[in-house]
Amino acid sequence: MDKVKSYFMFDKFNTSWQTEIIAGLTTFISMSYILFLNPNVLGDAGMDKGAVFTATALASALGCILMGALARYPFASAPALGVNAFFAYTVVIGMKIPWETALAGVFIASILFILITVFKLREKIIDAIPVNIKQAISAGIGMFIAFIGLKNGGLIQKSDSTLVALGSLNVPATWITIFGLLVTVILMVRNVKGAVFIGMVLSAILGMATGLIALPSSIVATPPSLAPTFGVALAHVGNINTLQLAIVVLTFLLVTFFDTAGTLVGLAEQAGFMKNNKMPRVGSALMSDSVAMLVGSLLGTSPVGAYVESSAGIAAKGRTGVVAIVAGFMFILSLFFSPLLAVIINQVTAPALIIVGTLMASSLAKIEWDKLEIAVPAFLIVIGMPLTYSISDGLALGMVVYPVTMVAAKRGKEVSPIMYGLAVVFMIFLWMLNIK
């Protein structure tokens, strides 16, 4: 047991098994919604929802366990939000491409992902991002997940006249969010360990006690069969034979690449892992996600990537790979106890996302706001992520502008060749997203 604690650097992070396990449970609960959301999204594309549920759980479990065991980071992985919507609504429904072919596109993109990871291209890109931009990424992700929490919790809602507006307090379920938020804040202010996790549990209990959350119909259920989706991607690789499909593959690659890179940097900043503007063991972290994406495509799900909800476990003081491993095993258990996950509704997880967003916003203080050439691209990233509802889109806005403002300030020589190259790549990326 001492060797295990040494491997995961318990002494370095002054942590314990109890803290890491609670943080792992907190991370899992924060992101468990993907088990139900992903089948619904991909189901709209014609895929079997039961098979997608099982594929989502297994791919997420693999990604989490690899990340925890190899990279030793408390970062969980699962099929990425936004990319699954692109898969279903843009590629399959919009372009009228069969889901089998789209899944083959994910498979090819994952192979390319592994290749550029092996040659350390992804690692070099992450290391080349300036520290101010990394701080902006962390803060932007914080704003993004807080926005998700406010929306999911019913505290804000869409408005035809003002885009967003204050949510209705006449909706009973919204009070679960309010209750959870207040309880979590009080516990955190009082330095209670596991405050985020306790807040979610108490919110779920309140919901069931008031009838706002339905009691689970059963406890144990047999996992749905993978047969409708297993291996389909491999059987349809030959269908990727047009320029349009090549663009689809490249888009899968770029969106997942920058979503994962932005998320890893943001989480690493939040947890204090960055050393001299570099992320230790980043190669292992990137390879973990790459392998999970490859296996996920074979099982039958959209691209897998690091999850911003991992910040909930970090906020619960989790600092080692044990957090991700615990989350991974919870995904495996969820295959058999899926009815119990039904009580974790959006209003239960919303307070955790809002709190985490608050904590990640502290990165704003480290940005050089007095230098306009830094402030403008940083601000575009921070504001762009929540307003575009996409980590990669918000990142693109700032990364395109950064070299421009630096050159204008006669600091162009301080910009690395990689950053100039990224600006071009992001411009192409934004153009591809608008191809109809």
From TrEMBL:
Molecular function per GO: purine nucleobase transmembrane transporter activity
KW Acyltransferase (keyword) present: no
Taxonomy, superkingdom: Bacteria
Membrane protein topology class: Multi-pass membrane protein
The keyword Membrane is assigned to this record: yes
Location relative to the cell: Cell membrane
Membrane-spanning segments: 21-38, 50-71, 101-119, 131-150, 170-189, 196-215, 245-265, 320-342, 348-367, 379-405, 417-435
Pfam families recorded: Xan_ur_permease
Keywords: Cell membrane, Membrane, Transmembrane, Transmembrane helix, Transport
GO cellular component entries: plasma membrane
Family statement: Belongs to the nucleobase:cation symporter-2 (NCS2) (TC 2.A.40) family. Azg-like subfamily.
Annotated protein name in UniProt: Transport protein
Organism the protein comes from: Holzapfeliella floricola DSM 23037 = JCM 16512
